[in-house]
Design a protein that fits this description.
2 copies of one chain form a homodimer. Chain A has 5 helices and 5 strands. By secondary structure, chain A is of the alpha+beta class. Chain A has 2 domains: 67 residues, Winged helix-like DNA-binding domain superfamily/Winged helix DNA-binding domain (Arc Repressor Mutant, subunit A); 60 residues, 2-Layer Sandwich (Dna Ligase, domain 1), CATH 3.30.1490.190. A 3-stranded mixed β-sheet of chain A has the order 4-3-5, with no helix packed on it. A two-stranded antiparallel ribbon of chain A has the order 1-2. In chain A, strand 3 and strand 4 form a beta hairpin. The N terminus and C terminus of chain A are likely disordered. Chain B binds a DNA duplex (30 and 30 nucleotides) through helix 3.
DNA sequence: TTTATTATTAGTAATCATTATTATTTAAAT
DNA sequence: ATTTAAATAATAATGATTACTAATAATAAA
């Protein structure tokens, strides 16, 4: 029989796993990894599996409900989807939010390039944050061989 | 006995593996992954190992001889270390160079932020390139569940 | 409310890029 | 030529992420 559902194909279901993961990401100012999100969410849902966390995070990302930030091969997630950049400390690996940058760049405002239209963008700044700089007696060696 | 070598600590040796990898990266306009670099370099050095390629690429990156570009969990390398951004096509996954952006942004020019000094940065634009757009009858669905 | 349907999940195994290890090789200093 | 330690090749290990499958549970239909 014919359904009245306007959605073609699969219907999205509301589950508490989705809600708790999104609520957690909206509640924190940090940028947790999937692994950390899994550990935190498991406090509320002890039976949740890692695969579920990864799948839900990917779905949220694809729906632009969260942003993904790649740091040293690990994906971190940001519940704040407003336009902003990130500063990543090469010592403590903390991720800092940088607002007030995107309205300056004409390219970002126009969202157009010769090669194609910009759907999305990511800006990463790297350096040593002031906290870490204060702790350093000298600057670290350039080729530390570490990622 | 005391050495006259100005370098503190380890001495860097010149090897053909390093030279061939860097020459390859300088010669191409594309942005190959470590895996592809390994396959290409092996044509000249059939006995080179993957570990060597990864280590040399990391060293080159740490010495700012090459740039690393992270796309979908895979690290790609760019022999052009001049200031430029990248446009990544979400369909064909090609990486396009975008020049003429960095001189616009005051923050990038000043290299200073409240949180710390900018040593380095990466700008990624995402979208569908014109080539792929021409092939598409309609826009793809948002949540394709693919990375 | 009960039943049927199927999206979603939990648990686990598999994948795959990258890193670590170690014996061997080799560039360069003596 | 000999020495020495940096670099390599080969291989194993790691670890984040994905794939798979049987069980569960959110909706729709009866």
């Amino acid at each position: 029989m014919i359904t009245n559902n306007k959605n073609r194909g699969s219907i999205e279901r509301i589950t508490c796993q989705k809600e708790i993961i999104l609520d957690y990401l909206k509640s924190v100012k940090t940028h947790p990894s999937a692994e950390l999100i899994f550990r935190e969410v498991r406090k509320k849902l002890p039976r949740i599996s890692q695969g579920t966390v990864y799948r839900i995070l990917n779905n949220l990302k694809n729906k632009d409900k969260v942003k993904a930030i790649s740091v040293g091969g690990i994906t971190h997630f940001d519940g704040d989807v407003s336009s902003h950049a990130h500063f990543i400390c090469q010592e403590c690996h903390n991720i800092y939010d940088i607002f007030d940058i995107c309205q300056e760049c004409q390219i970002i405002k126009e969202q157009k390039l010769k090669v194609g239209k910009i759907k999305n963008y990511q800006i990463y700044f790297y350096g040593y944050c002031k906290k870490c700089r204060a702790k350093m007696p000298r600057l670290p060696k350039k080729d530390s061989n570490r990622k």
